[in-house]
Write a structure and sequence with these properties.
The complex is a heterodimer of chains A (111) and B (789). By secondary structure, chain A is α+β, with helices and mostly antiparallel strands. Chain A is built from three helices and four strands. Chain A is 28% helix and 23% strand. A three-stranded antiparallel beta sheet of chain A has the order 3-2-4. Chain A is elongated and about 65 Å long. By secondary structure, chain B is mostly helical. Chain B has five domains: 126 residues, Cullin Repeats (5 helical Cullin repeat like), CATH 1.20.1310; 103 residues, 5 helical Cullin repeat like; 164 residues, Up-down Bundle (5 helical Cullin repeat like); 120 residues, Ribosomal Protein S5, domain 2, CATH 3.30.230.130; 80 residues, Winged helix-like DNA-binding domain superfamily/Winged helix DNA-binding domain (Arc Repressor Mutant, subunit A), CATH 1.10.10.10. In chain B, the strands form five sheets. Chain B has a three-stranded mixed beta sheet. Chain B has a three-stranded antiparallel beta sheet with strand order 7-9-8. In chain B, helix 8 packs antiparallel against helix 9, helix 10 crosses helix 11 and helix 17 packs across helix 19. Chain B starts with a helix and ends with a strand. At the A-B interface, helix 1 and strand 1 of A face helix 24, strand 3, helix 26, helix 27 and strand 4 of B. Strand 1 of chain A pairs antiparallel with strand 4 of chain B. Chain B: Keywords: Isopeptide bond, Nucleus, Phosphoprotein, Ubl conjugation, Ubl conjugation pathway.
Chain lengths: 111, 789
C-alpha cells in the first residue's frame, strides 16, 4: 500500500484532483499449489504419484484419514526420489537405489 | 395248588368253554351294536368272558370270531334295510350317515373287550409283533363287512348326493356339513388297502370333489367376469379362493395333499384362466394409482406361474414413461434450474415409492423394478444431454491412450443429471439465498436426497468432477455455509460407495484449508504487520486440488508482486523439498475504489485487479485493448473475459469500466477498443445512489482456462479409458483367464460407482491391451482372455 500511495504522490501532481489513490488494495487472497520438487512425479516403488500418499498410507487412511498422515518424499544422493515409507521398507532388503543401483544414502527429506 | 382244587377247576372247565359262555355274552354284544345302554357289570363281564374262553377253550377263539361275525353281519343287514328303504338320494344320504355314525362309534367300542381274542388268534399265526396302532381284527371285521354289504353298493349314489350338497352350499344354501364329512370318513376308513389307506378316497371322493369344484367355477367365473368386469371379478375370485380353501379344510381329508390340490385347481380355474384379462387392467390401475386393486391383483397373480412378471413390466413402463413425460413437461424450467430439477426428480421418486409401498407392500421384486425404471429416468439423455466429445485419434498426449485413430462413439450423449445434482449440492452448501432460507436439518435432509438420486446416476464420475470444482470454489472463496456439513458430506459420499481415492482427495482439501489457516497465523506473527494484514495465503496440495490444470501468466500489480518473495521465503523456512506455483486465476481479493461519487469495496479476481490497477497511474485516461494487454500480459481470451466482466457485469446498473465503441460480446473487442474508468460509478440500491457499499464482481470463480475447459469433457473420456484398462488388468491379474461375458460383468461391477462403460469402449480397450501384450486371446477360444505377466 505504501507504494501505491507513493505512486499517487508522484503522479498526483499531474492529475491534481486526486488526493487519494483510485484503487487501493484491501485484501489479497493468494492461492498457490505446492508439490514436491522432484524429477519424476511417480514413486518407482509403489507406482503412485509422489504427491499422493503411497499405497500403504492410502490403505491405512481409510481407517482414519484425518489423523496425521504425512507421506513425505525422500531424495537420495543420486537425486532419485521416492515415498519415504516405500524407501524405508526397501532399504531393509537392499540398500541401493531401485533406479540406479547406487548405494542409498539420504540427501534430504521432504517436510 | 392242591390236587383237589385242580380237579375242581377242570370239572368246571365246561363252564368256561365257548358254548358255555356265548349265551350270556351275546345279548350284551347285540346291545352294544345297537347302541343300547349296557351296565358297567355287563361290560366288565364281557371282558372276563372273552378272557376265559380264549384261555380255557382251545377251539374257542375261532368259534368266537365266527359267531361274532354272524351277529355283526346280521346287524349290518338290518342297517342296510333301513338305509336302502330310502329312494330319494338326500334321504338315503341322511339315513346312511345316521347309521354310519352309530356303527362307526361302535367300531371304537366293540373291539376293546375282544383284545384277548385278538392276541390268541394272532399268537397262532404270526409272532407277537402287533402294535396297537394296527387295526384290530374285530374292527377290521366290522368295517369290512360294512363296506361289503352297504357302502360298496351305494357309494356312488352317496358321493353324488354329497357333491350335490356341496354345490348347494356354494350356491348359498345351508345344510348339515356332517353329511358330506360322513361320506368322506366312510371312504377313508373303509379302505382295505393297508399300504395306502387313502387310495379309494383319493380316486373317488377327492377326484370327484375337485372335478365338481372345477366344473362349478368353470361356469360361474366367466359369468362373473362378463357381468361385473375385472375389478369386481378380482374381488370375487379372491373371496372364492378363500372360501374354497376353508371348505376344503372341512370336507377333504386333513392329513393329505387334498387341500393343496383343490386350491391349485381353484387358482387355475379362477385366476390362471383369466390371467391376461386381469393383467390387461394393470397398466391403467398403476396409472391411476389404484392401490387397493393392485394389491388384490398382486395377491391373485402371485399364485399363478409367471403372473407377477407382467406386472413388474407394467410398473417399469409406467415409471419410465410417466417420469420422462413429467420431465419433458417441465423441460424449460428444469434445464435451467438445478434446484427445480432435483426437486422434481425427488418428487417422482417419492411418488413411485409410495405407489410401490401402498400397492405392493414394498415387495422386493417391485422395488427392483422401481429402481430399474427410475435409473432410466435419471440417466435419460432426451431431456438434456451432456455431449462428450468423440475421441480424437491424434493429438492425445496421455501415454496409454490408443494411438490408432478410432472413430469411436464414446461421444454418445449422456444425461446432465450428475452435473445438475452437483450444482444443487453447491447451492445447499454455499452461502446462497436457498441455503440461508433452510434450517440445518432441512439442508441435511436435502443433501441426503441428493445422495439418494446419485445412487441411480450411471456416470458418477461426472458428478465427482463437478462436485469437486464447486467445493474448490467454496473453499477458495470461503463461501461455505457450514463447514461441518461440508465435511459430513464427504463422509456420506464415502458411505454411498464413491471411490476412495476421490473421497480421500476431498478430505485432503479440507485438511489443506486448515493447514493454510495455521500458516497465515504464523505468517502474521513473523512478518511486517502491513503485509500480513492485507494478504491471506492458501498453499494447497497440487495433487489434491489441481492436477493437470494449467496456469495462466499475468503481470501482477507491483504491490502484489512484492508480497510473493516474502511468502515464498517464509514457506521455504517451514518446508523443504517443495516447490510453489502461484495460481493467480484462482486468487482474488478486495479493493477499495474511490471516486467523486463515494467509496466502494469491490471483490475482484486477481485478473480484474491487474486490469483495474493499470489506471492507478492514469486515472482519467482511455486505455486501448492493446495497451492493457501489454500491461497485464494476460492471454487474449483471459483479458477479453476479464474486461467483459468489468464493463458488462450482469445486473449492475453502473459499470466499473466504460468502453468505446460499445460492443455486445467480448469477441468484438478490437486492438484499438478503448476503456476508461467510470467516474460516475456508484452502487444503486432501490433506485438510489449509494455513497458506500460493497459489491462482488468475482462471479463464478474460474478454475481452469478456456482451453482446458474445452478439454474437460475430453478428459472425462480419457480418464474413463484409463479406468477401463486398469480394471481389466485388475480382473485378469486375479483370474488369469476369463471369458468375455464374465469379464464384462466384473468390469461393470468394478466401475459402477464411477460410470457405466459402453460395450464399445470395453471392446476397444481389450483390443488395445492385446496389441500391447498385456493380455492375449486364448488359443482355443477367441472369447477367452489370458493375462500376460
Amino acid at each position: 500500500m505504501a507504494e501505491s500511495v507513493q505512486d499517487n504522490v508522484e503522479r498526483g501532481d499531474g492529475d491534481n484532483v486526486k488526493t487519494e489513490n483510485f484503487f487501493t488494495l484491501k485484501k489479497w487472497n493468494a492461492v498457490a499449489m505446492w508439490s514436491w520438487d522432484v524429477e519424476c512425479d511417480t514413486c518407482a516403488i509403489c507406482r503412485v504419484q509422489v504427491m499422493d500418499a503411497c499405497l500403504r498410507c492410502q490403505a491405512e487412511s481409510k481407517k482414519d484419514f484425518y489423523g496425521k498422515q504425512d507421506c513425505v518424499v525422500v531424495w537420495g544422493e543420486c537425486n532419485h526420489s521416492f515415498h519415504y515409507c516405500c524407501m524405508s521398507l526397501w532399504v531393509k532388503q537392499n540398500n541401493r537405489c531401485p533406479l540406479c543401483q547406487q548405494e542409498w544414502s539420504i540427501q534430504r527429506m521432504g517436510k | 395248588m392242591s390236587k383237589t382244587s385242580v380237579a375242581a377247576m377242570l370239572k368246571d372247565r365246561n363252564q368256561f368253554s365257548f358254548a358255555g359262555k356265548w349265551p350270556c355274552m351275546r345279548p350284551v354284544i347285540l346291545k352294544l351294536l345297537k347302541q343300547e345302554a349296557v351296565t358297567q357289570g355287563e361290560w366288565q363281564d364281557l371282558f372276563y368272558s372273552v378272557h376265559l374262553v380264549c384261555l380255557w377253550d382251545d377251539k374257542g377263539p375261532p368259534k368266537l370270531r365266527d359267531t361274532l361275525k354272524v351277529d355283526i353281519m346280521d346287524f349290518i343287514q338290518q342297517a342296510q334295510q333301513r338305509v336302502l328303504a330310502h329312494q330319494e338320494e338326500q334321504a338315503l344320504l341322511k339315513a346312511y350317515i345316521t347309521e354310519w355314525r352309530k356303527f362307526f362309534t361302535q367300531c371304537n367300542y366293540l373291539p376293546t373287550p375282544f383284545r384277548q381274542l385278538e392276541t390268541s388268534l394272532a399268537g397262532k399265526t404270526t409272532t407277537q409283533k402287533r402294535n396297537q396302532a394296527e387295526e384290530s381284527i374285530v374292527r377290521k371285521l366290522m368295517l369290512d363287512s360294512w363296506n361289503q354289504s352297504i357302502f360298496g353298493d351305494i357309494k356312488q349314489r352317496l358321493q353324488d348326493s354329497a357333491m350335490k350338497l356341496v354345490r348347494a352350499e356354494r350356491n348359498g344354501e345351508a345344510f348339515d356339513s356332517q353329511l358330506v364329512i360322513g361320506v368322506r370318513e366312510s371312504y377313508v376308513n373303509l379302505c382295505s388297502n393297508t399300504m395306502d389307506k387313502l387310495q379309494i378316497y383319493r380316486d373317488n371322493f377327492e377326484a370327484s370333489y375337485i372335478k365338481a369344484t372345477e366344473e362349478f367355477y368353470k361356469i360361474k367365473a366367466p359369468e362373473q367376469l362378463s357381468l361385473h368386469g375385472v375389478e369386481t371379478y378380482m374381488r370375487y375370485a379372491e373371496v372364492k379362493l378363500r372360501e374354497e380353501e376353508l371348505r376344503a379344510q372341512k370336507y377333504l381329508e386333513p392329513n393329505s395333499a387334498s387341500v393343496q390340490l383343490l386350491t391349485d385347481c381353484c387358482v387355475s380355474v379362477l385366476v390362471a384362466t383369466f390371467k391376461s384379462a386381469i393383467l390387461a387392467e394393470c397398466p391403467r390401475m398403476i396409472q391411476h394409482h389404484e392401490t387397493e386393486k393392485l394389491r388384490l391383483m398382486l395377491k391373485l397373480m402371485d399364485r399363478v406361474p409367471d403372473g407377477v412378471s407382467p406386472m413388474l413390466k407394467d410398473l417399469e413402463d409406467h415409471i419410465a414413461s410417466a417420469g420422462l413425460a413429467d420431465m419433458m413437461a417441465a423441460v424449460d424450467v428444469i434445464t435451467q434450474d438445478s434446484e427445480k430439477y432435483v426437486e422434481r426428480l425427488l418428487d417422482l421418486f417419492r411418488r413411485f415409492s409410495t405407489l410401490v409401498k401402498e400397492a405392493f407392500d414394498d415387495d422386493p421384486r417391485f422395488l427392483t423394478a422401481r429402481d430399474k425404471a427410475y435409473k432410466l429416468v435419471v440417466n435419460d439423455s432426451t431431456v438434456f444431454r451432456l455431449e462428450l466429445p468423440v475421441r480424437q485419434g491424434t493429438g492425445v498426449t496421455a501415454p496409454v491412450i490408443p494411438t490408432k485413430p478410432v472413430n469411436s462413439n464414446n461421444g454418445q450423449p449422456e444425461s446432465k443429471c450428475p452435473e445438475l445434482l452437483a450444482n444443487y449440492c453447491d447451492m445447499l452448501l454455499r452461502k446462497t439465498p436457498l441455503s440461508k432460507k433452510l434450517t440445518s436439518d432441512e439442508i441435511e435432509s436435502k443433501l441426503r436426497d441428493v445422495l439418494l438420486v446419485l445412487k441411480y446416476v450411471q456416470n458418477k464420475d461426472v458428478f465427482m468432477r463437478y462436485h469437486k470444482a464447486h467445493l474448490t470454489r467454496r473453499l477458495i472463496l470461503d463461501t461455505s455455509a457450514d463447514s461441518e456439513k461440508e465435511e459430513n458430506m464427504v463422509e456420506w459420499l464415502r458411505e454411498v460407495g464413491m471411490p476412495a481415492d476421490y473421497v480421500n482427495k476431498l478430505a485432503r482439501m479440507f485438511q489443506d484449508v486448515k493447514i493454510s489457516q495455521d500458516l497465515n497465523q504464523q505468517f502474521k506473527e513473523q512478518c511486517r504487520a502491513t503485509i500480513a494484514d492485507s494478504i491471506n495465503i492458501k498453499i494447497l496440495n497440487a495433487g489434491a486440488w489441481a492436477r493437470g490444470s494449467e496456469r495462466v501468466t499475468v503481470s501482477l500489480p507491483l504491490q502484489l508482486e512484492d508480497y510473493i518473495p516474502e511468502v515464498e521465503e517464509f514457506y521455504k523456512k517451514k518446508h523443504s523439498g517443495r516447490k510453489l506455483q502461484w495460481y493467480h486465476h484462482m486468487s482474488n481479493g478486495t479493493i477499495t475504489f474511490c471516486n467523486k461519487m463515494g467509496r466502494f469495496d469491490v471483490d475482484v479476481t486477481t485478473f480484474q485487479m491487474a486490469v483495474l490497477f493499470a489506471w492507478n497511474q492514469r486515472p482519467f485516461e482511455k486505455i486501448s485493448y492493446e495497451n492493457l494487454r501489454l500491461a497485464t500480459e494476460l492471454p487474449d481470451t483471459e483479458l477479453r473475459r476479464t474486461l467483459w466482466s468489468l464493463c458488462a457485469f450482469p445486473k449492475l446498473r453502473r459499470q466499473l469500466l466504460l468502453v468505446e465503441p460499445s460492443t455486445y460480446s467480448p469477441k468484438e473487442f478490437a486492438h484499438d477498443t478503448r476503456f476508461w474508468v467510470n467516474h460516475e460509478f456508484a452502487i444503486v440500491k432501490n433506485g438510489k445512489l449509494q455513497k458506500r457499499g460493497k459489491i462482488n464482481l468475482i462471479g463464478r470463480l474460474q478454475l481452469s482456462t478456456e482451453r482446458s475447459k474445452e478439454e474437460d469433457n475430453q478428459s472425462i473420456v480419457q480418464l474413463r479409458i484409463l479406468r477401463v484398462q486398469e480394471a481389466i488388468i485388475k480382473i485378469l491379474k486375479m483370474r488369469k483367464t476369463i471369458n468375455n461375458a464374465q469379464l464384462q460383468t466384473e468390469l461393470v461391477d468394478i466401475l459402477k460407482n464411477m460410470f457405466l462403460p459402453s460395450k464399445k469402449m470395453i471392446k476397444e480397450q481389450i483390443e488395445w491391451l492385446i496389441e500391447h501384450k498385456y493380455i492375449r486371446r486364448h488359443e482355443d477360444d477367441i472369447n477367452t482372455f489370458v493375462y500376460m505377466a
